Amino acid sequence: MSLKSGRAGYFFVSGYVVLLLAFGIVPTGYAFYLAFTNDRGQFTGLNQFIKVIGDYRFGPAFAHVAVYLVLWLALLLVLTVGIAVVLRGRMRPGLSAILRFLYYVPGALAGVASVLVWLFMLDPSISPASGLLQALGFDTFSQVIAPANLPLVFVLIAFWTGAGGWIVVMYGALNNIPDEILEAARIDGAGAWKSALFVQIPMIGRWIAYMAILAFAGGTQLFVEPQMLQTASLGRLDPAWSPNQLAYVLAFRYGDFNGAAAVSLILLVLGLVCAGVLVRRSGLFKVDA
Hints:
- By secondary structure, this protein is mainly α.
- The chain is 74% helix and 0% strand.
- α3 (58-89) runs parallel beside α8 (150-175), α4 (93-104) packs antiparallel against α8 and α5 crosses α12 (224-232).
- The longest helix is centred in the first third of the chain and has 33 residues, at 3-35.
- The two termini are 20 Å apart.
């Protein structure tokens, strides 16, 4: 690689590095500082972590997100990969392109706008799907957003918003599989489903792991959806329903920025550990010989 091309590479990544430092590394470093000190700047060791873990809202907040993540990841992994396989192998190219565009459209909405759309959809009194909601036994908005229903409600919002983009990504990954491999599978007697299960899906395993890592990381940061529902329901929802909301309450209702930083670092460590496990088991960054 020439010196000129090397300099060009540094130039192109410089903008990302600046933003990473300004909005990633520096805030994370400040969060570390806050989490290990008190409001007077004195070092307190693990006291902030012990305090927030002992908070009566800590366990329920993480339990809520755990249920949400299980439902969200299961639905995302199964349906996005399944739909991408169907689009790749069973649809005419023109129809496949139209469907991919339609799947992607909801992702163009900002997170808050998506939640507002769903606030409209989930209210039986005004929703165009009111008949379906009433058939399921929901006559009021309060019944729809009952605590037991919240994980599923947030999964539906997240899937509607984010799954379309991942379907397009999985479709692109499937297109990178050489036709010779798929033809060899057909010659060996593999039908469409066997080809998908034993050839196509294993060959895009790294892309699936990449999707799982980002979806898990995004899921642990759940904030906008419960916060908007909490506001729309006039306080019927727990204001500390998710860990991010708990950190927000600690910081801006009680002025406990040190405790909020401790919650954020727990989420960071949780995300890094799970990402490390997925990267190691999937060989995501393994370079093929």
